[in-house]
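User: Quick sanity check before I run a bigger batch. Here is a single chain. Can you write out its predicted 3D structure?
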Amino acid sequence: MSARTLPEGCSIRGATPDEIPAVTASLESVFIAPREFFLARYRHYPGALAEHSRLVVRGKEYVAHQRLYRHDLGFAGSSVRAWAVGDVCTSEGQRRMGLGFALLEDCIRYVRAQGAALCLIRAGLHDFYCQAGWEIMPLPACRVDPKAFPLERLGAPGYLTRTFEPERDLWAVAEVHRRFNVGRSLVRQRDGHFWARMHLWCPWQQGLGFQVAERDGSVVAYGRMWDSRLGELCYLPGHEQGAAAVLASFLRWAHGGQGCTVHLALPADHALWPALAGLPGVETHEGRATLMRLVSLRALFEQTLDGLSARLCAASHGLAGPVTIRCQGEEVTLAPRSGCLSLSDTRASRVAELSQQQLLHLGAGLAHPSELLAGQVSEDVCTDLSALFPPGNPIYWNADSV
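Assistant: Done. Predicted structure follows.
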């Protein structure tokens, strides 16, 4: 459905600054977060504008809403321009009319005009977003029952855990996050403005919901949890036990206070996976999904060209020649030039026709090209793509609220 086929009397547009109080009041009635949370996030989120709230309006009534957040991501060894869709809701009595699908298409048009390469959604309603063109990016997860889990197995001598203190710990935590996530895909590229302003719209991620681990007076690991979900647990190299100490702190709190199950969503190479394997009270499952959609193939390769060139230089061989990549009606040609890559306007004789899922999984390092594209492309093209898109780059879901 497009804006032209909306129900009679409806139209799509961005919110104006004077409408934000009313828009946030309507969100409070749908989400568990209070109105003050949305007002603070809209005010302090890096680059936030009123028009990033996309509305379906009928007269003076807001009947559906989606919010856009600039959310640049790590992808294929580079930082790409991306946006996240959040705060998705439709008024009761207005559902199943295609308003949500129409807003999603409006969001794609909007972010494409801003030069975006990718769009993402963190959500549990997989079917709705998949029908609208998004692909699920899998992330391993588990549930931990704190009453059944043997906490002594997470012993971490020498590490002190305590509540995060913004003025004392902020930049140390930012450095742990940066170093843990070097090279990972689908990780929010957090700048100093993000870290400095985050706590103005994430009050529940203070106190017991934000724990750090110290060793010899320095922060070496931290975790952020909300609504029983531990979605971010980072550590410095060599301090895997610091992450175990943070998890133990959260589990003690859950056991003693709420008695609730703790949900973990961690990258596949996280040090805690082997530590948790086979223990009582641990149940693995498919985590809350990150869903991705390609916005512009050309923008994606323009923004990853330097990273892909660096990978090519580090590979044992260069490209055999230009290769054209096609996806969803778009195409780009990658051409080797002096050991690096350039984008050519000339179509190459060697072609890789990829689905959106294949392209996203290759770029995120979730599969080897020879496995993903077996029998689909020639062997030499597969070899070239293996140099550009090496596997084994576990993705991570950040606790960024959208």
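The radius of gyration is 22 Å.

User: Great, the batch can go ahead then.
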